[in-house]
Structure formats: C-alpha cells, structure tokens
From TrEMBL:
GO molecular function: tRNA-uridine aminocarboxypropyltransferase activity
Enzyme Commission number(s) of this protein: 2.5.1.25
Keyword list, A-Z: Nucleus, S-adenosyl-L-methionine, Transferase, tRNA processing
InterPro entries xrefs: DTW (IPR005636), tRNA_Mod/Golgi_Maint (IPR051521)
One term under GO cellular component: nucleus
Protein name, UniProt field: tRNA-uridine aminocarboxypropyltransferase 1
Primary role: Catalyzes the formation of 3-(3-amino-3-carboxypropyl)uridine (acp3U) at position 20 in the D-loop of several cytoplasmic tRNAs (acp3U(20)).
PANTHER family: NATURAL KILLER CELL-SPECIFIC ANTIGEN KLIP1 (PTHR15627), TRNA-URIDINE AMINOCARBOXYPROPYLTRANSFERASE 1 (PTHR15627:SF8)
Organism for this UniProt entry: Paramecium sonneborni
C-alpha cells in the first residue's frame, strides 16, 4: 500500500473514466475561454539571478520578470501556505506563480519547519477532511490559514505523514466535485486537480460560505497563461490557425492507426 493511501478518502476520490489527451485539450480550451485573455510581454527576459532567459518569471529563482502592473493583484481573505515538495521542480508547479499575484501567498519547500494552529486547515481529500459547506459558520469564520500541498500524487504521502506525526488532530478540507482542466490527461483521474485549481475552488467555496461571493478567478491567471502558450505552440506546429482542426486531424489519424510514433511523441511533448 502506498503511504498516501493510508490517508486518502477513497469514496470521494474514486476514478472517473479515462479520456484522450485531445478531448481533454478541448475541455480545457472551453474552460479557459471563459477567463479573460492575457497579454503579457512576448519576448524572453534575462533573470537577474541566474542569467537565463525566461518569459514572465523565473520559477527557479522566484523572480517576476515583467512589470507588476501587467499582472493582477489579488487580495485574499485568508493567508495561504503552499507546501511544495522539494523533489518536484518549481518550474513544474501550477501553484507557485500565485505568489506573484498575492502578498498573502507563502511558498515553503518541504521538508521544512512549519507551524500550524487549530485555525489552520490543510486542503487535501484526507479521510478526516470536511467540506467547507459542512463546517459551522463559527468554524468557517475562525479559519486563519489554508495550506495547499503541492507535489506529484506520489509525493503527497511524505508530507501527509509529517503533518500526521506533528499534528495528529490536524483539520483537513476537501473540495466539492470538480474536474481538472489541466490540458493533458494525467492517468489518475479527472478529479485530480492541479494545485492551483484546488486553491482557486477552495477560495471560491470559502467566499460563498462567508456570503462574500467574491470571484478569485485571477488565481488562475498564470495557469491560463501557460495554456495560452501551449495553444500557440500547437498552432505553430500545425502550420494553420485552427487548433481544433489540428487536434481533430490528429485524432483521425490515431483512429486510422496510421499515427507515426515519433510525431505522437513530439505532440505529447508540446502539450
Ligand atoms: Zn532565475
């Protein structure tokens, strides 16, 4: 048994049907279209710390490389700690860029010291997790901090184990039923959200429960930006402006079992 299976709430977290990468890309495209388009400086900029060229930010050094005015500023109702497993590169994280958007976001590389109090809630579908809607108003009002666990599915066990040892009565929150819009199907389940999606839905649910009804969709700003970049790359690869057409062609070729294995590999690399 994998260590994480000791903790996870299997009933809530059961698998959904698998879908193809192309279908998932289409779902993602529809979802991201609802969010405002992002126009950021297109050229790469040299990171002052590592001297490498990057667009928008260097996650390795934690440097924002564009003008702060060109990205949204988010006032969160509660602080957020992102516990990031150090075996995972920062560059792969969907959540870490949130620190550029809000001063209330802190990122720590696990293993690390952390202090939780009884008003700290860890966002994870733990066996003991509760839905925000099932907490009393008093409990909801008492929350001081959310903690998001940011790592691959396989690394969550180590973080959960450490929390369990340090705080056996730790409170956990689980989210209502959502599906991921990460653009490539991730083999586990559509219910496996990207960390930034989980963070976004958590604040949406909290806001609703507090009857503030604020929209925190700007938390998805860099998530959408990454999707836009991938879509652009696909367009270039396709040599035409219709990304849907490209995907459909790809699908058709697969159906006809004529897909060249090498091209497939390149396509998967792009998305
Ligand atoms: Zn750098």
């Amino acid at each position: 048994m994998h260590i994480r299976d000791k903790y996870i709430d299997r009933v809530t977290y059961k698998d959904t049907d698998q879908i193809s990468n192309e279908e998932q890309f289409k779902r993602a495209n529809e979802f991201f279209q609802q969010l405002p388009d992002i126009d950021l400086q297109a050229e790469k900029i040299r990171c002052p710390k590592c001297n490498q060229l990057h667009k928008v930010y260097c996650l390795k050094c934690g440097e924002l490389l564009v003008d702060k005015q060109s990205i949204p500023k988010i006032e969160l109702p509660l602080n957020l700690l992102i516990l990031h497993h150090d075996k995972e590169k920062h560059q792969k994280s969907s959540a870490i860029p949130a620190k550029f958007l809000s001063a209330q976001v802190e990122v720590k590389d696990f293993p690390c010291d952390f202090e939780f109090d009884e008003y700290t809630y860890v966002l994870y579908p733990h066996q003991n997790a509760k839905y925000i809607k099932d907490l009393s108003l008093e409990e909801i009002q008492s929350i001081k901090k959310f903690v998001a666990i940011d790592c691959t599915w396989h690394q969550t066990g180590a973080i959960l184990e450490t929390i369990q040892k340090k705080y056996p009565n730790q409170k956990y929150l689980k989210l209502e039923d959502y599906q991921t819009y990460f653009w490539r199907y991730q083999h586990h389940s559509l219910k496996c959200l990207a960390t930034i999606e989980a963070i976004y839905y958590c604040y949406q649910e909290y806001s609703k429960a507090m009857k503030q009804n604020k929209d925190y969709c700007n938390l998805l700003f860099f998530y959408k930006y990454t999707f836009q970049q991938i879509k652009e790359a696909l367009k270039k690869e396709a040599g035409n402006s219709n990304v849907y057409e490209k995907i459909d062609q790809k699908k058709q070729r697969r159906l006809n079992s004529k897909l060249n294995a090498k091209k497939e590999k390149q396509f998967l690399k792009l998305i």
